[in-house]
Amino acid sequence: VQLQASGGGLVQAGGSLRLSCAISGRPLSSYSMGWFRQAPGKEREFVAANVWSGTMTSVADIVKGRFAISRDNARNTVYLEMHSLKPEDTAIYYCAASTHPYTRSPSPSDYDYWGQGTQVTVSS
After folding, report:
1. CB–CB of 44/93 below 8 Å?
2. Please, what is the end-to-end C-alpha distance for the chain in angstroms?
3. Is 82 exposed, middle or buried (0-12, 13-18, 19+ CB in 10 A)?
4. Share of the chain above pLDDT 90, in %
5. What is the rounded CA–CA span in Å between residue 120 and residue 26?
6. d(CA 42, CA 27)
7. What is the DSSP pairing of strand 45-50 with strand 32-38?
8. What is the predicted pLDDT for the residue at 67?
């Protein structure tokens, strides 16, 4: 199983980005998916997750109302829509897959496969 994250970049505060994570090797519908981020000098933190069907999601309080997770199982791709970006959202964003199809766990240790990360930089 391989995860390929993309869509990061440099954006001004208040702007938007959409991250994508494409999975290969097995169908996306086999997994719950999560997005995490890690800023320099900080621990990896949970951003959002959804179950295999996409019908149940969880979003961290710190980004609630600004970020949304979604998926297209037919395209084997999960997305993270980010709006009203702030400088403190600057981090490397990682997608992750859990073999437990119903988890929305905020713990990185509950995910089995990880993408390589995509850098998001928000300028003030």
Report:
1. no
2. 37
3. buried
4. 98
5. 27
6. 32
7. antiparallel
8. 98
The CA distances from residue 33 to 42, 57, 84, in Å, are 22, 10, 23
Selection from 2, 62, 60, 38 nearest residue 120 by Cα? 38
- CA–CA gap between residue 47 and residue 67 (Å, rounded): 8
The Cα 14–Cα 26 span in angstroms is: 36
Q: What six digits make up the tokens of 113?
A: 């496969």
Which two structure tokens, joined as six digits, stand for 56? 């149940």
Sheet holding 2-6, edge to edge: 2-6, 17-24, 77-82, 67-72
Helix (H) or strand (E) holding 123: strand 118-123
Quick: pLDDT tens for 8-67: 999 999 999 999 999 999 999 999 999 999 999 999 999 999 999 999 999 999 999 999
| 77, two tokens | 């791709």
> What tokens were used for 69?
């997770």
Q: Where are the beta strands (DSSP E) in 7-117?
A: 9-12, 17-24, 32-38, 45-50, 57-59, 67-72, 77-82, 91-98, 113-114
